Amino acid sequence: MQYMMFVCTDTSPDTDPSPAPDIFAWVEENDTKGRREQGHALAATSSATTVRVRNGELLVSDGPFAETKEVIVGFDLLECADLDEAIEVARTHPMARAGRIELRPFADL
């Protein structure tokens, strides 16, 4: 089953003083096990462009649509047997401590 894993910042990071997991080790482990199909960090929100259409009019604005301190900073496409496996993959990502991870299955359309 495929899951989109959104890697996000958070205003309340973990306060555990132990060293954070290494992101390169996390990527290598999950690539090797075939659980991570692709992923990438995203550019700063200042480079974002928001596109909307309202009443037939194109509205393009700089930056993210929402003013928020919590932003998506990266993504990974996971292939996992089930949600439990996806949670285990997310749990070991460094940003699970420094930020937050959102897992979302793809819709069956």
Question: What topology does this entry show?
Answer:
Layout: E1 2-9, H1 23-32, E2 36-41, E3 49-54, E4 57-62, E5 72-79, H2 83-91, H3 95-98, E6 99-105
Antiparallel strand pairs: 1-5, 1-6, 2-5, 3-4
Structural account:
The protein is α+β, with helices and mostly antiparallel strands and 109 residues long. It has one domain: Alpha-Beta Plaits, CATH 3.30.70.1060. 21% of the residues lie in helices and 38% in strands. It starts with a strand and ends with a strand.
Kindly report how far apart the N and C termini lie: 14 Å
What is the assigned CATH homologous superfamily?
Answer: Dimeric alpha+beta barrel
**What proportion strand?**
35-45%
Low-confidence stretches: none
Largest sheet, described in full? 4 strands, antiparallel
Shape: globular
The secondary structure category is: alpha+beta
Do you know the CATH topology? Alpha-Beta Plaits
Rounded to an integer in angstroms, the radius of gyration calculated over CA atoms is 16 Å
The helicity comes to: 10-25%
CATH architecture, by name, is 2-Layer Sandwich
- Could you tell me the number of beta strands? 6
Give the strand order of the largest sheet, numbering strands 1, 2, ... along the chain.
Answer: 2-5-1-6
Q: What's the CATH first level?
A: Alpha Beta
Q: Taking all residues together, what is the mean pLDDT? A: 92
